[in-house]
Fold this sequence. Notes:
Family: Belongs to the PP2C family.
Shape: globular
Cofactor: Mg(2+); Mn(2+)
Domain PPM-type phosphatase: 73-348
Number of domains: 1
Largest sheet: 6 strands, antiparallel
Structural class: alpha+beta
CATH topology: Phosphatase 2c, domain 1
Region (Disordered): 1-65
Helix content: 25-40%
CATH superfamily: PPM-type phosphatase domain
Order of helices and strands: EHHEEEHHEEEEHEEEHHHE
Strand content: 15-25%
Amino acid sequence: MSDRSTNPVTETETSNLKRQNPIIIEESNSESKKQKTEAEVLTSEESKRNDSGTEEKKQKQQQIAAEKEFKIEANAAEDKGSRHSMEDAWVVLLDASLDSPPGKLRCAHFAIYDGHGGRLAAEYAQKNLHKNVVSSGLPRELLDVKAAKKAILDGFRKTDESLLQESTSGGWQDGATAVCVWVLGQKVFIANIGDAKAVLARSSIIDGSQNHPDGVSPLKAIVLTREHKAIYPQERARIQKAGGSVSSNGRLQGRLEVSRAFGDRHFKKVGVVATPDIHSFDLTDREHFIILGCDGLWGVFGPSDAVEFIQKLLKEGLTVAAVSRRLVREAVIERRCKDNCTAIIIVFKHS
């Protein structure tokens, strides 16, 4: 098992980390200070334009004020299990703006890429997907849900297209599933392809203070993703329409279990796509944490089981880094996960 711990970083180091695999436990503050302007005598038209600008500034200020209400802490842990090599890759970016200076809207990004047939596709997506999403128009000033989802969709498409070109020229055929989260302001976006999964821990009432015998308020596990496997009717129909087939063992062309993935260039002509399911929700006091995990983790942990396990450790005062290590250790050592196992825990701390 390898855990990536966090040390204080300078602005230069933070900039470099954005292009790598950082774990930053302190919340990044990207707020811009209000700029004062001298009073001017305005014409009627100028006044209208100023009113419009004032309203836009007010919306931005309201967004910034809302973001002050919670902090994000996140960490990841991994273990190759009984496999000979580690084919997972992951990203934890608490400041994922990639802007200098950053936009008004807080942007954080988290992802797990579960490779198969090798690690190259997972590493390629790790290095390129978020950059492609940002360059595709991910909102940075005012939240626009439609624009954000389009940017994520376009980012997945661009990443897969360039990955396929890279794999063709390099002569490799690796593939990778993905589960990704973007936090924009107080809106969370989840995108996935394949069988990696995201689970949300949510309380049943706003302040989460309902009584419970052991002193811990139970949290509900909400699965945020839909698995894409060739055996599922909707995916099977799409594969067959594309000219592929699903064998009796539930695998595409008798070989590939997942029906959506980055890479897998030889299967792209027979139904494998990299089109993600994308969902979003607003952060409130009810949302406590999100667990991202590859299929190795979810093969030995049920959603409710994982939420209860993590909630108990957080209640005991363990750090997010320690909890992520304990979760993966439990999966591999105690529950005998044979596959690569990677988990990211994203905790929302409300003021």
